[in-house]
Specification:
Blueprint: H1 8-33, H2 41-62, H3 69-98, E1 134-135, E2 138-139, H4 140-168
Antiparallel strand pairs: 1-2
Length: 169
């Protein structure tokens, strides 16, 4: 059976999740290209949730009235799982920034002091434990974790509303 007669809350919450995710990844790119912030290894890893999750969610939204219900549930579960992983990555990165736990050795730690001033043509490397920007005491990694949790919540509302609607039919 196609998911053609869905409760409006289903599509509205899924659509809001997409818009929130799109604005977030656009802001991440804007902070890099316009704001001059240099993403670290963990920052780039956090973006993967948006790169994988948003296209799947967009496909669900575009084919909303034509998807078989089982495919709809599977796709929504996959997108939700991707953003759960994104929330974990944001939380992990924020914890590294606060010094709660060590980050990957590739982008944290002290190492030996070296002088790289003569290597002007290289892209700067930012440590994963370095906070380049905070707003209200929360870093961008912290905001990413919160936004990912909000997206998961919106997707959960969409799945819940769909299942609730289907029980009534």
């Amino acid at each position: 059976m196609a998911a053609s007669i869905l409760h409006p809350l289903d599509k509205k919450s899924a659509g809001l999740a997409f818009v929130l995710g799109f604005i977030t990844i656009a802001a991440a790119w804007g902070s890099q290209l316009i704001g001059g912030l240099v993403p670290c290894e963990l920052c780039l890893g956090q973006r993967l949730a948006y790169y994988y999750g948003l296209p799947i969610l967009l496909a669900v939204l575009v084919t909303w009235n034509r998807l078989p219900l089982a495919v709809w549930y599977i796709a929504m579960a996959v997108v939700t799982a991707i953003f759960v992983w994104g929330a974990y990555m944001g939380s992990y990165h924020a914890g590294v920034e606060w010094g709660f736990w060590p980050g990957p050795t590739a982008c944290t730690g002290v190492g030996e002091m070296m002088d790289f001033s003569s290597l002007n043509n290289l892209t700067p490397v930012i440590g994963c434990d370095v906070v380049q920007f905070r707003f209200l005491g929360i870093s961008l990694a912290g905001y990413n974790a919160l936004i990912s949790v909000a997206i998961v919540g919106l997707l959960g509302i969409s799945i819940w509303a769909q299942s609730r609607h289907r029980r009534r039919v």
